[in-house]
Amino acid sequence: PTADGWTATPAGDKITVGSNILFSPGRAKLTDAGKRALNGIARDLTVTYSGRPVRVYGFTDGDPIRKTKKLWQDNLDLSANRAMAVTRHLIGQGVDTERLETIAMGPARPVASNSSAAGKARNRRVEIYAIR
Predict the structure, then answer these.
(1) CB of 61 within 8 A of CB of 124?
(2) Considering the entire predicted model, what is its pTM?
(3) What are the extents of the domains in the chain?
(4) Residues 115, 9: contact at Cβ < 8 Å?
(5) Is the pLDDT score of 11 beyond 80?
(6) Which of 1, 18, 87, 94 is deepest in the core (most CB within 10 A)?
(7) Residue 124: which of 106, 97, 98, 100 has the closest Cα?
């Protein structure tokens, strides 16, 4: 069975969380709302998807890093740090580290056009897969 909020895909069940919920703009520290969202996901991973490998993908929009250039070399760097923050939180919530893989995608594989603010917002996301 697919947990509430998750979508079945050929690779496994997936849940997407927007970066606007997880992080402040240009940052990789989880917000309180982000932590709450991940707590529910961690429960799903330890109960419904117990034992399955888990992949955490971090994505950004296509805009070059400007305001936080001192923190991040580029979007790949930002996406890596965001995905790692999510992975660390899941571990802290009881998801076995041996099950987790963390993958930085930067601006690759956009789900919307980067030509609008709404599209960019959709592209800034973290996807978590419970692999089949």
Answers:
(1) yes
(2) 0.95
(3) 7-131
(4) no
(5) yes
(6) 87
(7) 106
